[in-house]
Amino acid sequence: MDASNAALAALLFVVGYFCGSVPFGLVLTRAFGLGDLRSIGSGNIGATNALRTGNRTLAALTLLCDVLKGTLPVVIGWQFGAAAAMAAGFGAFIGHLFPVWLRFKGGKGVATYIGVLLGFAPTGVLVFAAVWLAMAALFRFSSLAALAATLVVPVVYALVGNVPAAILSGVLTLLVFIKHRPNIERLLAGTEGRIGAKG
Fold it and tell me: How far is it, in rounded angstroms, from Cα 124 to Cα 127?
C-alpha cells in the first residue's frame, strides 16, 4: 500500500469511527423519554438492552441504526476499493465498541458486526443469521448464539476463498469475544440470562 492509499485508508477509518461512535441506543432511549439506557438492565447501549425497556419499537430502531452505522462507512469505502472498505468497516466497529463520547465505553458490537458484513460481503449475514437462530433455539442464550455465529462467519469466508472478508470478520470476531468476556464467564458459571427472561 503506497502513501496515498494508506492516507485514504486512515481517513476512512476515522470517518468510520465517528459514524460508529454514535450511541443510537442511548440517544433513542432519551428521545423516547425513558432516561439513560446505561441505568437499565445490563447497562449496555445496544438493542438487546434497549428491549429491556419494554419498548419493542425502540429496540428495533436501535438495532437498525447500529447495523446501518456499520454498513454505510463500508459502502463509502468500497468506492475506493476493498482495503478502503475494510478500513472504514473496522473504524465503524471500533467506534461502536469504544466511542469517544462515552469515555470509550460502548456496546458489544454484534449489530454493528452484522452491518459491516452487510456492506463488505453480504453472504456472511445469512451465515450469521442461520447460526444465531439455530443456537438461540437450542440453548436460548443470546450471547452464546452471537458468539457462535461470529466464530463461524470467518471460517465460512475462508472456506469459500474470500480472504479479505475472512481477515476482517476474524478480527471483529476476536473483539466481540473480548467484549463478551463477562457473558462468557456467566455462561460458564451457569448464571447467564436466557432469551425471554426478565431483568
Answer: 5
Backbone angles phi and psi of 22, in degrees to 5: -65, 115
pLDDT in tens, 41-69: 888 899 988 988 889 999 999 999 999 99
Q: What are phi and psi of 163, to 5 degrees?
A: -65, -45
pLDDT band at 198 (very low <50, low <70, confident <90, very high): low
Detail the DSSP E strand segments found in the chain. Answer: none
191 by Cβ neighbours in 10 Å (0-12 / 13-18 / 19+) ranks as: exposed
Instruction: Name the residue among 91, 113, 117, 102 with its Cα closest to residue 20.
Output: 91
Q: Which three cell numbers stand for residue 18?
A: 465517528
Total-model pTM: 0.94
Q: What phi, psi does 17 have (nearest 5°)?
A: -60, -50
